[in-house]
Structure formats: C-alpha cells, structure tokens
User: Fold these one by one.
Assistant:
Number 1:
Amino acid sequence: MSARFEGSTVLVAGGTGGLGRAVTSAFLEEGANVVVTYRNQPEWERFKNSASANASRLQGHEVDVTDEAAVNQLIEKVLLKQGRLDAMVNTVGGYAGGLKLWEMETIVFDRMLNLNLRSGYALSRSAVRVMLKQGRGAIVNVASKAALDHAAGAAAYAASKAAAVAMLDSLAAEVTGTGVRVNSILPSIIDTEPNRKAMPKADFTKWPKAEDIARVILFLCSEDAKVIHGAAIPV
C-alpha cells in the first residue's frame, strides 16, 4: 500500500455513491483522513462498516452540497477537527436524458443544474478559500464527456456539465500561482450498479471501472501531478 496521502485531509462529496465510494476507499488505502458527504443514511452505514481497519480515518456528514450555507458549515467542521483541507473531490452528479429540449420539463433542467453545476460551485467556493490561506490544495470536479460531446436528448445534462467545466477552468485561472490546483475529469459511462440497472442490455465490459477513475483522481490530487492545473481530462 502506498502512503502518498498519509496525514492528509480529503473531502469527497458524494463519497458513498458508485464512484465516490471507490475514490474514498482509494484515499483511505493511501493513508488519508477522509470526510465524505452523503444523502442516504443506510448507504453510509454500510460503507462505514465495510471500511474495517480504515474506519477510524473516515468521517461522514449528511449534507446537501447544493446548499452553500450547509457546505460552509461542513468545511468549518472539517477545519475544527482536522485543521487542514488538502484535497476536495466532487463526485456528486445526476443524469437525465432521452427527451428533446422542448419536451423536457423545466424542473428536470433545474435539477441537472443543481446536481452537476451548483454542487461544484458551493464546494469549490468554500474549499478554495481554505486552500488559499494554506497556500496549497487540490480540487477535482467530476464532469462528463457530455460536456464536449453534446448528444441529442441530453441538453440539460450536457449544458450542466459543460458549464461545470467552464467554471472550474475559470477558477483554475484565478488561482494560478497560489499553490492551489484545480482540474476536472470527463468520464464516459462508469461501470456502477445504478448504471447497469439503467442500461441492462449494454456491454459493461466497455465501461471504465470506478476504481480505475479513482486512481486518476488520486494522481491529480497528489504531488506527482503538481504541474497539472486547469485541465479537463477524458477518462
């Protein structure tokens, strides 16, 4: 086991979901203290129980990360307990597709903006303030290849992910030279249980595994990637 992150404090938003769980587990295996946000209490309990030897370095908070005030309170709690925030990874997101723009209900559009854009806004805005004071830190936002490949029937999803990439790109420009690094990753369909249930006839063997994407995220948060900043990396 590598110890690249031993003593580090990492926040993984959506840390009990399909990708988030893999990211959290990978950070724990490399020695980090990991704080996760979740919305599903039983899911959190199952994940915490499965962490076994690493459970002492795992904390969970039930937080709506689209709520800026709630996110600020969470960051304050992390600082009070850990005294630092070395990395923030946002794996929160949602998908809605299959409807033409004029057929889609506006509530769906708003939901995509909240999950895929506002979550990153609230989290990055709060985390970056801490990291600027520290003079170091890494932010990674999980967007999607749909940010660049705008397929029919996915207008709200593609728009929200494209906006998320643009927002993080601008943030990266704003913090250049401060010691804070900001990057996005652009996955295709990830091999998770919800995605398999949603597309039971798909060829799962062609989908990237959550564990493989987690390794890319850990790399981007590590000193090995200290020269990577303002990137949007397809995975």
Note: Residues 145 and 188 are 6 Å apart (CA to CA).
Number 2:
Amino acid sequence: MKRILIPVCSFLLVVLFYTGCDSVLPGDPGTLVIEAYLNVGQPLPKIRITRAASLSAKRFLSTTAIEGAEVTLTLDGQEYTYRPSVSNPVFYEPVNGSGVLVGAGASFELVVQVDSQTARATGITPPSIQIKAIRLDVSEHPVTAVLLDSLDIGLDSLNIGLNSRTGFIYPVQVAIDWVNQSEIAAENWVETRLQPITPFSSSIVDFFLLPSAIFPENSASLVGSGVRTWQGVYAVPVKKESDPIPIHTLRVALLRSGETYALHASSRRDPIGREPISNLTGAVGFVGGVSIDSLSINVPK
C-alpha cells in the first residue's frame, strides 16, 4: 500500500504549539490562530480562537484568548452564532443549535471578525467512516530491537545515538478494515492510529514500526466489495527475552477528511519548518470536516 504522509502528531485532539528565539516586535498584535473540527454525527464544534505572539518569520510563542470576536458558523444554509466559553475563554461555543448534529456532505462556512480583521474558512464535511473489522497478528516471541525515546527525535539528531538502547519488543501487526464506496475514495484522505493503553512507556519506538499514517483513501487496498484495509505495527517492550507480552488495551482509530486536513496534520509538528499549513484566509490554523470511528480491544485476546 502506498503511504504518503506519516505524522507524529496526536490524533485529532491537538493544540498548535509554536516556539522561537527572536524578540517580539513592539506593537505587533500577533497572528490570529483558529482551530475547529466539524465531526460528522457529533454536535456543533467548539472553536478555538487565540492570537499567537510573533517571534520570527517562522515561529510563534505565547498565545492569548480573543475577547469580543464575532463568530458565525453557517452549516447547510443554517446560521449559528458563537460566544466565549465561560469555562475556557480560548474556546467559543454555539449560542443556538442545541441538539444539532453535523451531517455528512454538509457545506459550511466559518467567519470570525476580530476588530477590523476577518478570517474565513469553507468546506464540505466528509462521508462518515465505520470500522468493519480488526485483525491482530501478535508475535509469539519478542525480538531484539534498537529502542529510543521518540521525544528526542528531531530535537537534536546527535542525541539519537546517545539515548538509544538495545532491548526486546513484541511486534503487534494490526489490520484495520473499513467500509468504503469507490465513488467517495478519490475525494478523501484517511488517518489511522494505533494507541496502546498500557503501563509501559508509549514513547519508546523502533524505526520499522508504523503505528499511524495519513494517505489518500483510494490508495488503500481493497479486500472485498466496498471494504478497504490498512496494516500497521506497534511494539510492546519487555525487559527480558523470556518475558510474556503484557496484557493491555489497544485503541484503534480512523479519521476521514480531505487533503487540506492531511497537509495540516503532517506539518503541525514539523520541528524545523514554518507554521502548520492552514486552510483559512486571514488567519492560520485549520477549520474542516472530519469523521472518526474508534474502538478498543484487549491484546492478546
């Protein structure tokens, strides 16, 4: 299967983090940052609106909440107004639309007015996604692997050799099947993620592993009429070669969206690049439609 983008970001529930080293220009109001995900089958989303203090042409540092923004979301022709959240002022919540769920194939437009600045995003929500089956292949014996802490990757390449160690892991191969009609495959991208919920460290990785990926949906293999599949691998570390695989829970998640989401998701944690790719005019960030399905299973069964 052709893999296009492999992100190291957290799955969907993320916040834009920016770092830098230059001084803030006096009087610079900063950059407007907006994030919202219209999740198919879920209520109208909260919208995160902040202003990031600019440190350089490539970086942002601190973020502050926006007061007094005029926020309107139009979904399939129906207009919904937003106000700041009482519990967390960086988020805006819908004033009307209680009980409204985001539909598949719905057109939307978000307009945010802050003083004389207007930010806008438009799009269409994707078809809903549904996991059909999950197949596991658990190694009977652990294998030797060179392990390192994923938090060090990209921060200082010189640290990789210093922080790596030899250990033992159980590779677990996971195949995810989901329902897909061929007529919608060409329009969408899929993000997959394997998230072990365990007492062992989730930051220990080996380079051959593939716990997540983003790819065009029509590049995934067909395994039946209207069914596509993806295979990934994660690892369970053990101290000794004679240790059995620890019993744990695995959360499997699928997200369907468009190419703009794929570009944003793959660029938002780039340690050396510019700010994440945005689909807004008048601001940075991301506003788009997504569809998510997930489930948890016990490993080994």
Note: Residues 1-27, 150-162 have pLDDT under 50 and may be disordered.
Number 3:
Amino acid sequence: MLPVELKMKPLLLPLLLVLAMNPIACSRSTADPVDAPSPDAATQPEGVEVLNDAGQAIAVFAGGCFWCTEAVFERVKGVESVVSGYAGGNDDDANYQLVSAGATDHAEVIQITYDPQAVTYGELLKVFFTVAHDPTQLNRQGPDTGRQYRSAVFYLNDAQKQATAAYIQQLQDAGTFAEPIVTTLEPLTKFHPAEQYHQDYVRLNPAQPYVVYNALPKVKKLEKQLPEYVETGIE
C-alpha cells in the first residue's frame, strides 16, 4: 500500500521529478517578491468581522492546495485556528475523492478563525493575495489544475464581499501583478471540513516532497516579505 501522502495527489511521483529539476516553476507565487499596498479603510467596512458562536471572527479563502494555504495562515499573528475543507460546490456532499476528481465544483478552502484585535480582515487579504497563492492563475495553482484549485474568496456577508473587491482594486491600481487577478468572489453557503489526515498536514509532514517544493517556500515568503504579520514563537 502506498503511503497516505502519495495516495492523495494524482500523478505525484512523475511530478516530483519535474519539481526537483525546477522547484520555482511549481509555484509562481513564491518566485518574486510582491510590493503590495497595505489595506486601506475600504477593506474594513462595518460588519466585515463575522463572528462565530464562540465570538471568533471567520474568513474562508481558496488558493490552491489547502495544505499550502493552511501552512501560511497558521503562522499569521492573531490567527487562532485554520481548518482545511471544501466550499462552493453544487452538491451537499464533499470529500477528498469527489472534490479532487472535480465532480462537485467544490474548491479546496481554509476556514480561518482569528482575533480581529490582533489582525484585521484586510490584513488577512494581503497575506492571501501576496503570499499564500498566486491570484493570477486561473483554475490552477502551481502544479495543481482544475476548478477545485481555483482562487476564490468565500464571503460570509456583503461587508466581506465589499472589502475583498476593494482590496483587489487596490492591487490592480498599484500594478502589483503583471497579469489580471482572476480571483472569484463567491458566497459561502456551506463549509465542509476535510478529512482529519489533511489537517495540519505541513506541520506534521515537513519532509514530504510536495510540501518541501510547494508549501514551505510560501511560509518562508511570509517570513521574509511580511515579517510584521508573523506570529513569533511558532516552529
């Protein structure tokens, strides 16, 4: 039987040979520093911090493989937890086999709970757009292709939708990216937590080749490019 990490990514073994020869090509969002504007007041409209029953603020982002985005946001100050999962599909059921096959139109997402006194929704957007993934890649992220790997913000209310649109406009006005941003804004209708073996995957599997070539460079990029956003004391 194959190790679980090799069973989870189709065609992973041939891909690893390519990544070993050209690791930067696998994840364009980690190749070059991005001089992005800081979120302005338009990214913090009234009501943008949506609270759960425990009084924690919630954000849901899709930016390719959830192993990678989870690893980045677990290092961001003020983030209290990150859960990998699925959202945006046209089926009430979602699991890795269905989603990875593109059968339900769900995306791999992360649900972030955070302390808005320590980090704002706008600051999370900055991390998402400039470090956690490449928002100019359409229906793919690095080596992963398909709508399940699309760039999307799943907004919980109109204020989050407004804030995200405002920050995208900031990025476009600043000429941050050479190519157009293709991130979609989609209402969150339901969040499906992913299987337990996907949770904290990078932290638990730091030597796994996919992690080494795709996730860890993004964490390093966060540390180098946005050190003021990094929670200290986390290994």
Note: Residues 1-8, 10-31 have pLDDT under 50 and may be disordered.
